[in-house]
Amino acid sequence: MRKTAFVNDWTCNGKPVTLPHDAMIHEERRPDAKSGSAGACFPDGKYVYEKTFKRPASDHVLLLFEGVYKNARVFLNEREAGGAAYGYIPFFVNADEYLVDGENTIRVECSVTHPDSRWYSGAGIYRPVWLYEGPKESIEPESVKISTVSYDPAVIRVRSEQSVKVETAGVSGEGTDFELAIPDARLWSENDPYLYTANVTNGADSCEIRFGIRKVEWSNQGIFINGNETLLRGGCVHHDNGILGAAAYDESEWRRVKIMKDAGFNAIRSAHNPCSRAMLEACDALGVYMMDESWDMWFKHKSKYDYASEWREHYLDDLKAMVDRDFNHPSVIMYSIGNEVSEPAKEEGVRVTEEMVNYLHGLDDTRAVTAGFNLMIMTNSANGKDLYDEKEGGTDTSGEKKLQGMNSTVFNMITNIVGTGMNKAANSKKADAATSPALDKLDICGYNYASGRYPQEGKLHPDRVIVGSETFPQTIAENWAMVKKYPYLIGDFMWTAWDYLGEAGIGAWAYTPDGKGFNKPYPWLLADSGAIDILGDANAEAYQAAAVWDKLDAPAICVQPINHDVNPAKMVWRGTNGIPSWSWRGCEGRKAVVEVFFNAARVELFLNGRKVGASKVKDCKAVFKVKYAPGTLEAAAYDAGGREIGRSRLTSAGNANITLRPEKAEAAPGEVVYIPVVMADRDGNVESNVDRKLKISVEGGELLGFGSANPRTEERFDSGEYTTYYGRSLAAVRAGESGSIRVSASDWIETAETEIRITEKI
Q: Using alpha carbons only, how large is the chain's radius of gyration in Å?
């Protein structure tokens, strides 16, 4: 079937929009919003999307909605034609019986009632929509599935719902279930993510499918990609795109995956819902492994209005939708059936776990099934202390009934107090007995914050395969040493690789009085827990991980911010808040904590040519305390024999001005382009202590979002005005149809401009 974008000429509640579109990010945040800190104080919303279009000439028409949050209902010419309750799965609408000749109307209704989610969900048609058209005998989208039977020799298997002919790599085959040997095949992996194209025909219709030749195998000896043992250098990633809210633009998803790959990650866990198609395509092309996760809840609520009420009715259909979409993506190596649910501690939950594992095996027998199980939560539940207690008790300030007992917010508060000691909370025999019935149903057991169990599992459960599905970033060195030591431990996924909206302040090192508690109030906006911030800038968390993974070419120097008069209140989901900057104007003489990350034995630190310290390296990290003075901070790293193996430096900025740094010099019509806007000197050094409120203007394109990584602010990403944070901000612009994009940033002091040429359509 022919596939075209169905994203233009829509309205949302009467206002013109282009998809994808996050309606929630344009709402006014309020201190009293029922979403609270979890949802970043955004309000409830009901959204109606409408579009008028002419009927395609083809006999068969489908509409694919990649994601609508949530409770989507689709009407064609005032007749209900389809929809989906879950906001994170793709769904098709067969339009054949609803379309009329000439003009047609489509309406999509969706709504969000808070408290809905434990993070910022976004709302509306936040992922793209596609129109498929073809003959009645069309090859239906996702109906042809290609898997790898073997890699030496390379043999693929093609399964289809109808007889088709497939040609690829100079060979061909025909039928509904057949194998093809691929001569001189290039195997897909993180190091060589080579993709083949299969041309599929059935006589009446044709399509192309991209696939990789990649076989996943696992045992207590590890996980193997095409026979090669692979250690997963993973990070958890929420679905939002920072300054763009939840809108899933292709360029945004590709940019995020590339930045992570460049930072040393080779795996992503989509926390805690199926990721976007664009992210899968980026992982395919760039060589990043994906653990695609299904839900954050099962049939017990974590938030009052979350998906738990609808889950029982739809969970198998949700899994099928995820598998149908994921099947031909070589990057997907595991399916996760949930995150930190308490149900598997009870008999019914164990049955449901087994049912879903078997169901997924029936849909796709080429991939492992896992889950992000928090063993402490499950143990408590088995002992009658259920985290998600749905007993109603009393009313809230609005008069609505509220849930009684411990909830996820309270649990996170306790975790923050306990700290990394939580890793040992499920080490007991009772915990093992409570968690094993469900864990034993999984192919690969995902442990959230239970690294204390790793060493003993090889003896207690010799056939068990384990992955650190969610871990504290500051324990990366300890965790990675165990990943390398124990064959059955296949990798580590830190919380979190990329900062996100909502769950406000969960990882913050806060300098304001309202940041001392866990449940941070308005105007806190971001989790502030990412190794990479919402702009895509790496911090000390990312550099330590890269050093531990031996992915740095030279020492990385980071400095904990020194432009504050108070010590920060520290949250456990961050081990350091250092950033790579030695530009702190006005902070002369203040004590600076300098961190140097590298796989070395010893590091020496120099300030303006004078040696100011030397330190042994522990966990790929050396820490120094020095008095700040502008100039050049230099680190030299040495091996155990005293030989220098790396040197790097940070230089203070001189006269800092507004500087625009477009990430591309050219853009195609409609393409999204990112433009970092920083306070920097002529040599590119960013000044971290001269933040200014800037205004962005765009000609030849549309400003989609502009903001900084400030976790606590009342400013809006859609206003065109924002204050830099530690000298940095970011704009996202959609290119017009021709000419060039001209972007300027200004304040009352100065104006800076840049231009991006729009290339012609090919």
A: 26
How are the residues of the chain apportioned to helix, strand and coil, as percentages rounded to the nearest 5?
Answer: 20, 35, 45
Q: How many residues does the chain have?
A: 762
Question: How far apart (Å, rounded) are the C-alpha atoms in residues 3 and 19?
Answer: 16
CA atoms of 518 and 537, how far apart (whole Å): 25
- Taking the C-alpha atoms of residue 114 and residue 44, their distance in angstroms, rounded to an integer, is 6
User: Measuring CA to CA, which residue among 37, 40, 17 is closest to residue 28?
Assistant: 40
> Which residue in the block uniquely carries the two structure tokens 């700040």?
628
CA distances from 181 to 172, 193, 194, 480, 706 (A): 9, 19, 17, 38, 50
Cβ contact 323:315 at 8 Å: no
- Going 532 to 538 to 540 to 545, the CA torsion angle's sign is positive
Question: What angle, 0 to 180 degrees and rounded to 10, lies between the N-to-C axes of helices 277-286 and 308-326?
Answer: 40
Whole-angstrom Cα distance, residue 411 to residue 417? 10
Omega within 30 of 0 (cis) for the link into 115? yes
Cβ proximity of 730 and 707 under 8 Å: yes
Going by C-alpha positions, the residue among 438, 292, 471 that lies closest to residue 367 is: 292
Check: CB of residue 483 under 8 Å from CB of residue 586: no
Q: Are 45 and 111 in contact (CB under 8 A)?
A: yes
pLDDT less than 50: residues of the chain: 392-401, 403-406, 762
Collapsing DSSP to helix, strand or coil, 403 comes out as: strand
pLDDT score for 518 = 81
Query: Helices 476-485 and 540-548 meet at what angle, rounded to 10?
Result: 20
State the residue for tokens 């304001």. 512
The Cα–Cα gap between 605 and 594 comes to 9
Number of helical (H) and strand (E) elements in the chain, helices listed first: 10, 46
Q: How far apart are CA 377 and CA 448, in angstroms?
A: 10
Q: What is the pTM of this model?
A: 0.97
What pLDDT does 517 receive?
82
Across the beta sheet with 657-660, what order do the strands follow?
Answer: 657-660, 672-680, 728-735, 701-707
**Cα–Cα nearest to 109, from 11, 39, 42, 41:** 11
CA 316/CA 308 separation, integer angstroms: 14
Per-residue pLDDT, 625: 98
| Tokens describing residue 84 | 């989906």
Cβ-Cβ contacts under 8 Å for 338 (sequence gap 6 or more)? 272, 293, 294, 295, 296, 297, 298, 371, 372, 373
pLDDT attached to residue 393: 47
The residue behind tokens 């076989």 is 215
The kind and range of the H/E element at 219 are: strand 216-219
Say what the pLDDT of residue 470 is. 98
**Residues β-bridged to residue 108:** 49, 74
